[in-house]
Amino acid sequence: MGAAAVEVAPRAPPSAKRRSTTLLHLFQLEKPDGLLPGTAKLPPPTPEPEADSLIAKIASCRRVFTFVDPAECGEEREAKRERLAEVLAAVRACGDGEEKQRRRPLDHRVMVALLEMVGANLFRAMPPPACPAPPLPDGGADEEAPAVALAPAWPHLQLVYDVLLALVEGSDARTLRNHVGRGFLSGLLALFASEDPRERDRLKTAYHRLYAKLTGERAFMRRSMAAALLRHAYDAGAAGDRGCGAAELLEVCGSIINGFAVPLKDEHRGFLLRVLLPLHRTRWVHAYHRQLAYCVLQFLHKDPDLAGDVARGILRCWPVTNCQKEVLLIEELEEIIEVLEPAQFEKLAVPICSRIARCVSSCSSQVAERALYVWNNERFVELATASPAVMERILPAFVAGVESNLEEHWSKCVQQVTASVKALLQQLAPDVYARCANDLAARRSEAEVAAAVRDARWRKLEAAAAAVAAK
């Protein structure tokens, strides 16, 4: 049985490129121009006319009005204010997307124009300080009052700061990093010298937002703030310098310190010891003491071992004639005591309590009362009575101040508070208080005897001098 012949078709030569059978290829076969059925071809992209008009509007806002020059036109000032409001609305519209993907980032040219406009309006030479201070009703000058001089151009400056805040909040970190340089940051820092509290408040918010987003410039910004605070610490004696801007800078520093990692770096410890502690020495410390004390306490919460250096630094800056500053420093010492452990308090009890005890017998009723009210602090009483050795060391100074107030102080209110403190001390440590009182009486008797002997010697000398003169 023979095999049937099988015809084999000849193989087609291989093609140079395999024909695509994808869905996109089939659509392209049906519509060679690449468009789906029922669609129209879009026009080629053109430059956005909105961006060009916005840039032109921003450029027109670079003209600065002083609001004090009589040659300025009021209509032009109002027109600039309206244009600034329109620019602010446009910037906010680009950054108000509910989701990050839906936000329309600002064009590069718009960003450059905005920052140039902000710099042209904000970066300016500050006027001379408002000195002398406003007179009091009695005709004197209140040297303790903070200087306040409202900026005449605030209607424009307010909108410019709002534009800056909207720009920072609506832009991502990469965009800001490409457009905001160190020169711009230094210019913003110099504006903290403004005596207008409204401007410093807006400036504080903007600078803090920039610090949060410009991670690569944080070290530079910290160094710049430290240099500005050091100028407040060591150049505060300049005429008219009343610590303007220090409170706002310390508020920014407080939020930064709150984010420091533990253990603290040497750079951060150095900022506490070389910048924050010297700020206690100025006469205008009352203008920023609340923010300064917060920064110091943040450091102590993160590293309690710094309490000794902090307490000694504050005691070195203790005033002699500034009663308001004494009250503030007593309050700060009391806050430091509240975060101390018993072992730490035992090391610092003598220097801290000796200073507070001297303030008990101060001629100023405010200082004396504030020093006496330290014994109302439960934490202080707990640490002071935790060890008999501590009471033995700190009570003699307090007993001397208490007895002196009861005998000689001019203020009836201080005498009443002193009597209450004496009753408390006699209740906490009756034996120690009695022993200290006896020692105080003995020292006073010895001093009286020494004074009598000295007076007798002087009388003999005077008599001898008179006898020689009579001859």
- Stretches where pLDDT falls below 50 for ≥5 residues? 1-6, 132-142
Please count the helical segments: 20
Could you describe the largest sheet, including whether it forms a barrel?
A: none
Strands, total number: 0
Helical amount: 55-70%
**How much is the average pLDDT?**
86
The shape is: elongated
Write up this protein.
This protein starts with 22 loop residues before the first helix and ends with a helix. With 471 residues, it is mainly α. The radius of gyration is 37 Å and the shape is elongated. The protein has 20 helices and no strands. The longest helix has 41 residues, at 430-470. The model is unreliable at 1-6 and 132-142 (pLDDT under 50). α2 (49-60) crosses α3. It has helices spanning 23-30, 49-60, 74-95, 108-122, 154-170, 173-179, 182-190, 197-213, 218-234, 246-258, 266-276, 289-302, 307-316, 323-338, 342-360, 365-372, 378-384, 388-408, 412-428, 430-470.
Keywords:
471 residues; mainly alpha; 20 helices; 64% helix; elongated; disordered N terminus
Which helices and strands appear, and what pairs or packs with what?
Layout: H1 23-30, H2 49-60, H3 74-95, H4 108-122, H5 154-170, H6 173-179, H7 182-190, H8 197-213, H9 218-234, H10 246-258, H11 266-276, H12 289-302, H13 307-316, H14 323-338, H15 342-360, H16 365-372, H17 378-384, H18 388-408, H19 412-428, H20 430-470
Helix pairs in contact: 2-3, 2-4, 3-5, 4-5, 5-8, 7-9, 8-10, 9-10, 9-11, 10-12, 12-14, 13-15, 14-15, 14-16, 15-16, 15-18, 16-19, 18-19, 18-20, 19-20
